[in-house]
Structure formats: structure tokens, C-alpha cells
Amino acid sequence: MQIEEKQIVINGQNIILRSPGRQDAKSFSEVRDITYRETYFLARYPEETDFTAEAAEAMISDIAERREEFLIGAFRKKQMIGCVMVLKEGNHIKFRHKAVIGIFILQKYCGMGLGRQLMEYAIENARKTELEQLKLGVFDDNVAAIRLYEKLGFREWGREPHAFKLKDGSYRDEIQMVLFLS
Hints:
This protein is α+β, with helices and mostly antiparallel strands. The chain has a domain of about 130 residues: Aminopeptidase (3-Layer(aba) Sandwich), CATH 3.40.630.30. Helices cover about 25% and strands about 35% of the residues. The chain has an eight-stranded mixed β-sheet, with helices on both faces. A hairpin with a 2-residue loop joins strand 3 and strand 4. Helix 1 packs across helix 2. The chain is globular. About 25% of the residues are buried.
């Protein structure tokens, strides 16, 4: 699904929110790779992913063809600085009404309201589809993200203890959250 371009201003900087195109594949791949190195709040460590520009291009093209799934990239001067993804859990009849939402942003753009703007625009566009709910998982110590999701209307529906084991041997619980779109 293609998303209509929207211009926003964050800390005096013009940011464009739009569907990434094939021309953005290299930037998309690089931003994902950088964010994996910047935080442990994502599901993988950098060495566990091989998300090449070619893989990014295939993903972008594939999702653009789907009816209720989409990517929204945040671009500053044509360079991607973050992205939100809405991907269906499955196409089986019992799962068609819900999707998983995920977000990643370069660390230097965190704490400025960009995450909120990306999430709000994703929710707005999800409401234009036949989706009824968005789900996400968040590390229990990612307090800023949890607060944002709650402000956007997400509610905790479950918690998986010790869902993530970090390299240092410590564990983090995963909080599962849901937003009903209707």
C-alpha cells in the first residue's frame, strides 16, 4: 500500500513522511543496520541480520503491492532517518483483521517527537484499511516507548517474562500491547 506524502517539522527541520521507493533501499538497509547497533531494544543484534540493499528493495516492492500493509519512512534531505512498518500477522481468515506495528529511528532523532508523528501517521493510515487492531511488543525497560504507546491508546494485554536474553546474560520481559482501531 502506498502512503500519501506528508511534510512535518521537527525541531525546525523539514521531515517528509512517505512510502519508501526502490530508490530508498540502500538508505533503508543502512538505517536498520545503524539502529540495531545503537540500541538493544530491537529484536536482533547487528551481527544477526543480513539486511542488504537488495533485500530492502525486495521488501519495499513486495509491501507496496499489498493492500493493508505499508511502510512509512521519515526522510530528512532525502536520507531516511526512521521508519514505521505495519505488517499483517497472516492472511488466514482468523488473522486478517490485525497487524503488527514496529518502528525504528536513528538515535540522534529520538526524543524530538518523530516517533509520535510516525506512529500517529501509521495509525491514521491503518484506520483507512479493514484492519481492526494493531499489536506490538516492547522491552519492559523501554519506558519512553511504553509511555508513547500508552498516549497513543495502546494497552498492555500480556507480558512474557524473560522474553529477551541479552549478551551480558540479563533478561528483559516483553510487554505486548494492542490498539483497537474502531
